[in-house]
Structure formats: structure tokens, C-alpha cells
């Protein structure tokens, strides 16, 4: 049974930091490109960052470049998103995603709220 479980969300003040985690099970984690998406109220889900396993290549949405860092630990079957210098516009539910060929797995999401 495939599971992706996000954690680490919460309420943080503007300028603060959070680290999200995505624990994976039920599939060969190291073989899958992994991504973080987010969805704010009334908006479409958008790609935040992605990491390819074999070479560690990463890419980021322009809105988070220089502030967010995606990483993964294949030994722990876990992906991370370090979020620094958070802004109110980063408020959203953050989802982790594993996709390869026609396999497409999603977590349940974790809420991140940036507010003073």
C-alpha cells in the first residue's frame, strides 16, 4: 500500500522558517522523481519544487527560488522542503507527490499559514 505522509506544517510569522517532511512507503522511493505542490484557497494547485533521484537535479517555482530548498534522503524514504523567509503568500496546503510513468501518488497535505 502506497503512502505519502506530510508533516511539519503550522503557523509561522512572516520571515520565519519551516521544514516540511514527506515520509514514503509502499513503493521504491529512490526510483521516483519527487515534488512538492501547494494549493492556496481559491487557487489551482501549483508546483513548488521537484527533485530527481538519480542525479539530485532540482527545480523551483520562480516565487520560491532562493528561499526554499528541496532535498531527499533515499535511505530514510523521506523528502524535505526547507522554507525560509516565509511570506503571507506562501500560505497554502502543501502536498508531496511521487510520479513515474503512469504512477502518480499524493499525500494528504499539510497546512502552512504565514501570518503575524
Helix content: under 10%
The number of helical runs is 0
User: Between the first and last Cα atoms, what is the distance in angstroms?
Assistant: 40 Å
If you compute it from the alpha carbons, what radius of gyration comes out, rounded to the nearest whole angstrom? 13 Å
How does this structure look, described?
The chain has 116 residues and is an all-beta fold. 0% of the residues lie in helices and 53% in strands. The strands form two sheets. Strands 2, 4, 5, 6, 9, 10 and 11 form a seven-stranded mixed β-sheet that branches. It has a four-stranded antiparallel β-sheet with strand order 1-3-8-7, with no helix packed on it. It starts with a strand and ends with a strand. The model has no long low-confidence stretch (mean pLDDT 95).
Layout of secondary structure:
Blueprint lengths: L2 E5 L2 E3 L5 E8 L8 E6 L6 E6 L6 E3 L7 E6 L4 E6 L8 E9 L2 E4 L3 E5 L2
Parallel strand pairs: 2-11
Antiparallel strand pairs: 1-3, 3-8, 4-5, 4-9, 5-6, 7-8, 9-10, 9-11
Jot down its keywords.
mainly beta; 53% strand; globular; seven-stranded mixed β-sheet; 116 residues
In short:
The chain contains no helices and 11 strands. It has 116 residues and is mostly beta strands. The strands form 2 sheets. Strands 2, 4, 5, 6, 9, 10 and 11 form a 7-stranded mixed β-sheet that branches.
